[in-house]
Amino acid sequence: MKAIVKPTHRLEGTINALSSKNYTTRYLLIGALADGTSTVRYPAHSEDSDAMRRCIRDLGAVLEEDEEQMTIRGFGRHPRDVKELDVGNAGAVLRFLMSVAAFCPEVTFINRYPDSLGKRPHDDLIDSLRQMGIEVEHREGKLPITIRGGKPRGGKITVSGNVSSQFLSSLLFVAPLLEEDSEITVLHDLKSKVIVGQTLEVIAQAGITIEASEDLMHYRIPGRQQYKPQNYVVQGDYPGSAAILAAAAVTNSDVRVLRLAEQSRQGERAVVDVLRAMGVQLTHENDVVHVQGNQSLKAGEFDGDHFTDGVLAMVAAAVFAEGTSRFYNVENLRYKECDRITDFLAELRKAGAEVEERQSEIIVHGRPQGVPGGVEINAHYDHRVIMALTIVGLRSDKGLIINDAHHVAKSYPQYFDHLLSLGAQIELLGEEEH
């Protein structure tokens, strides 16, 4: 699908934030790891969360769902013996389930996206699983990956946090179910500590005890625990909403986004503060973010590790700010669905933005007058890139044509519908129409 994004002067209206992808995938997983039936209210529907639904079903969980809630009858530490699992293009789902698959005799995670997830490295988690007595067959740390398990063992485990926090989260989900007590030490650095906090929050809600050091680099986990079946409520999603808020910020707008909890542990909640620092007029009260954009933004310096999945949307806003913005501590963006630094900035330059990259930084020389646009650009199979490029297109002189825009469904299937409801000028063309 192509998205033809036309210059749009004003956005106006109210939308409900979509449900959090991160919390949905975690609640689905702990529901599957529980012995008994759990309820998840307002689960997200996206390619990622649907991949988790599909895979835990394959592993033996029983799911029933209506419009507002889902029930999950879990398999505990006894997943069904399956030969293959298809996680689609969902990196977090793959990594979480690689540890769960350690309870199975032999499972192969297939490679359906060789140009995206198929290029992403998983060596750090593979090393940790081998410390647990699991045999792993792989191709230089990449898909397809075969796990030969059955009896994973606890004890002292190390995991690198340099590339992704998802490797650590994967181990934290499974370690409480092992026969032995475990001690997990994170090596090097730990990216996206805020998201690890979400993992710990969800695990604690299921009655599991984990003792974490204050810096989140060391964990003591008693074994032989059980996830308790519980009722969970999924909060609104800040990473997806960041793009809506940024679109409102760069246009003349009056936009309200509902269901964004003020006390959320989502790191991307920080995008509200980033936009405030850029001079955007907004309020955040009673779980409603109200943006009154006037196209007048100012540059700033921001630590992107605090709001990893909101960085690209904030970079898109900074394209139109007065002055030079710097987003630092963002190297982990290079290891996502695409290289979200090199690949994204290449597309921004095509649109006329003035941007520079460092290994772990994005530098934006703002153009308050706007950018020319009028070009066809590539999405690199990446939902966050699509959302951010759409923001730029709305404020460009001649609009943008975004190829492969359907990949936005990975996290936010309603993204274009929501923007259209706010008055955005966007035309969507299926493959057969061009």
Could you walk me through the main structural features you see in this protein, from its secondary elements to its overall organization?
- The strands form seven sheets. This protein has a four-stranded mixed beta sheet, covered by helices on one side. Strands 2-15-17-16 form a four-stranded mixed beta sheet. The protein has a four-stranded mixed beta sheet with strand order 4-5-3-14, covered by helices on one side.
- The protein has 434 residues and is an alpha/beta fold.
- The longest helix has 13 residues.
- The radius of gyration is 21 Å and the shape is globular.
- The model has no long low-confidence stretch (mean pLDDT 96).
- Helices cover 29% and strands 27% of the residues.
Biggest sheet statistics: 4 strands, mixed
Helix tally?
12
Helix content: 25-40%
Radius of gyration: 21 Å
Approximately how much beta-strand content do the residues carry?
A: 25-35%
Query: Which structural class do the helices and strands define?
Result: alpha/beta
Write down how many β-strands occur, each being a DSSP E stretch of 2 or more residues. Answer: 26
Subunit organisation of the chains: single chain
Mean pLDDT figure: 96
| Low-confidence blocks of residues | none
Shape: globular
